[in-house]
Amino acid sequence: MKRRLQIVAVALAFGFGLSGCGNDSGQSSGSGSARTTKSTKSTKESGMDMQEAAERSDGMLDAVLKEIDPEVQWAHGPTTTGSCDVTRRRTVMTIVSAERRQSFLDQVEKFWRKSDYRIKAKNNDKEFPAVYAQTKAGFGISVSFRGKGQAFFEADSPCVKESKVADSTSKPNGPAYEGVYPLPRPNVHSDYWSTGAA
To answer: Residue 175, preceding bond cis, omega within 30 degrees?
Structure first.
């Protein structure tokens, strides 16, 4: 009995030590987000707050979307905040056919590697593939395909100082869908990305 209590105590201590502000699984529960271990060394000590973290996340998302060739149309997804972190989202409105998804992911992964991001995980599922990466500053970023082959980008901050978070100032390259949630399924045809789509 005493031995069992020791094991439970160690397991609880280990679990609490890992809980922090987030997890390091490469996914948050149910959202497919690129959650990161919420290390506070490089962000809290430097004074970064949630608004600044959101702006950095916007910059990361802007950069990767500009690298996709040919260009895809995107709209903002919802911004969410935790007790010390923020997540920005972008939803791709261009139809990316099943036969083009790997090419799409390859472009994204190549850019992230070139940007010195660490690839944390890949899901090679044919229908719902995904790539999860992390920056040296502890920001997580991911791209994943979900229902109807729609691509979603998410950027998660590490734990930073609490603050209010304003809407993103990045302008979508198509309809903004302000106040619309959930966003429509992909509806923009591309001669390249939509090849073979029904």
So the answer is: no
